[in-house]
Amino acid sequence: MFTELNSILSSSPDSVTPGEFILVSDRQSDASFLIHHFLSFYLRSRCKVIFLGLVQSFRHYSAVSQRLGVSLTQAKEKGQLVFMEGLKESLSVLIPQADNTESQAMNFLRDPPVGLRSLYEFVRSCAVGSGRAEDGAEEWGPPVLLVDDVSVLLSLGVDAGAVLDFSHYCRAAVCSQMKGNMVMLVRCNGEEEEEEDGEEGAEALLKGLTHQCSLNLHVQGLPTGYCKDIHGQVEVCWKRRQGDGPHTQRNLFQYKVHDKGASFFPRGTSSAVL
Amino acid sequence: MCNNIDVIISNMAAPVSGMGEAPAERLPINSTSFQKKTRSKLVSIPGTRPSVQNGQLLVSTGVTSLDYLLGGGLAVGTVLLIEEDRYDSYSRMILKYFLAEGVVCRHELFVATAQDNPDDILQELPAPILDDVAVPKAVEQPRLTGEPQDSLDAMKIAWRYQHLPKVQSALASSSRFGHYYDVSKTMEAEIRQAAKCHRFCLPDHVTPSSTAHRLESYSALLKSLQEVIHREGFDLAAPMSKSRNILRVGLHSLGSALWGDDLCCHDKPRHRHALTTFLYGLRALLRSSLSVAVVTLPSHLIQDRALMGSITRLCDNAIALESFKGSERETNPLYKDYHGLLYVRQVPHLNCLASQLPDHKDLAFKLKRKQFSIERLHLPPDLSETVSRVSRGELASACGPSASGTKNLDF
């Protein structure tokens, strides 16, 4: 959990605003450090967390969370965290063997055009299952869905439209029905002005998800070039739907990622410069 | 006799034992190949060492400057993507260094090609310099003979810069890891045959003319790789009874048309996700076993930059080579010291938040007989004679018309 980011977003583990869809996006950069922040943030605020770790192994997230002060193995044992390790489950689908018991979640790998229905069913069963309090089990807060990351589904052959449907269904189930939150990471590679046909999938996905979300953290490299002390800039964009009509508010910060966290500062005030 | 065995074992283990770190970072048994420092049963594998940054198990790529660029070495369980240069000369060279290092460290090899026999690559491996005395020195200032060193080190004019460190353009770290190879000789057959090598030649597994060829070549490769990992015991879940070893996987020219893919042939390929799904499966296999992979890819044939971006993101480390051969840069005096440029496209952050980004982004490489060196690109000083030399005639004519200045002016 990055304390400076908490103050920027005016959020704290004690009071979590329900029903939020936070989109973390990056362009030619790596925004996965923000996923680690949200993972430790929601675990500290005692929500039930469903994590779809599609690109890295469990050990990677566990090691980073340890440095941020949260133990994933303990959370998993207590039932607070449901971790779906995409890499491990995908092997049983990609290399079919007769005696394998496969989980249904990564079924879309067998026939990508079909869509992500089985993945959504998995998410829904985890989220709804948290409503029932079992005897002796601890009561956790509303469910939170974290996806790292959504663009890899495009590389695995799923259509951008199917991914948008999946995120919409998950938002309806987790955010509206269960009053939980959702955080997704989407990665984009091209320049914003280029209109390449090959980028249709990724750009359309980014635009669609930006439209659906309520808070967007967009990470980019510095427009002036590569710098070792400032790793990039983060644009924080709120969309407030309640109150006095739609009102967007944008803030721009620069950041640097350390071993144990990340520091955020307004443009031009990096410690390397001042 | 016991003393000798101790010496041999300590030589095979991490060479940084002099730093006072007792062999604490070794390989505990867990579900993936990324390890943290724990106190469980310890096994040390020859040819590997733990990373000083995050305790990862590292192997050498065979090229010491490349090891330095990647943060000390290639982490076990990751993929290195090399975007080939136009004639596939230097990328093939790095692949051969990687496999040769595996032979010398007694790791097992797995080589896959689409058309050539894997034995062709294996027979071209460079010969190791086994009793190597040559340790690369830092760039030395040229010295006049007969002058004692002290007077040269004390600067007379630029004495304020005396305490600054000397610029070291060649990338190397202080502790040596990996071996050196002589490119002019090939590895002797008996050394090569001592290493266990698994081969995958695509025509043996999938007939090129079958309709299923297009999509099945990658899944056949993945299946074959998983079989080897299972059978030879590289799985992390396998029991710890016998000694562990590392499997080095070399995949040559993935994505070319010979693998049945049309990524290189069309602007909008129809089965764009065949290669990316394979890379995803490869990452899944590597993370759960003691293996490391080097993949070369002819990226200059792929027109779709977005696809190249997703391929790069699915590999952990990625570098691109651009050789000067055949281009107009070959005769450009600025680049006369180098054979090509090297770009670092991606460096991973594994088990930690921050990645070790390289200090400089402009790197060039040079293949010498005993070393493949990667250096920071330096432009040579401009020593041409026509630069900034104002002739006396021009000076005089600028001051006003005089007798000697009329040779340039012709009124």
UniProtKB/TrEMBL annotation, chain B:
Keyword Transmembrane helix: no
Reported function: Component of the elongator complex which is required for multiple tRNA modifications, including mcm5U (5-methoxycarbonylmethyl uridine), mcm5s2U (5-methoxycarbonylmethyl-2-thiouridine), and ncm5U (5-carbamoylmethyl uridine). The elongator complex catalyzes the formation of carboxymethyluridine in the wobble base at position 34 in tRNAs.
Annotated signal peptide: none
Family per similarity comment: Belongs to the ELP4 family.
Any single Gene Ontology cellular-component annotation: transcription elongation factor complex
PANTHER family attached to this UniProt entry: ELONGATOR COMPLEX PROTEIN 4, PAX6 NEIGHBOR PROTEIN PAXNEB
Predominant location: cytoplasm
Location in the cell: Cytoplasm; Nucleus
InterPro entries: Elongator_complex_protein_4 (IPR008728), P-loop_NTPase (IPR027417)
UniProt pathway annotation: tRNA modification; 5-methoxycarbonylmethyl-2-thiouridine-tRNA biosynthesis
Keywords for the protein's UniProt record, in alphabetical order: Cytoplasm, Nucleus, tRNA processing
Classification lineage: Eukaryota, Metazoa, Chordata, Craniata, Vertebrata
GO terms under biological process: tRNA wobble uridine modification
Domain of life of the source: Eukaryota
Gene3D superfamilies linked: P-loop containing nucleotide triphosphate hydrolases
Protein name in UniProt: Elongator complex protein 4
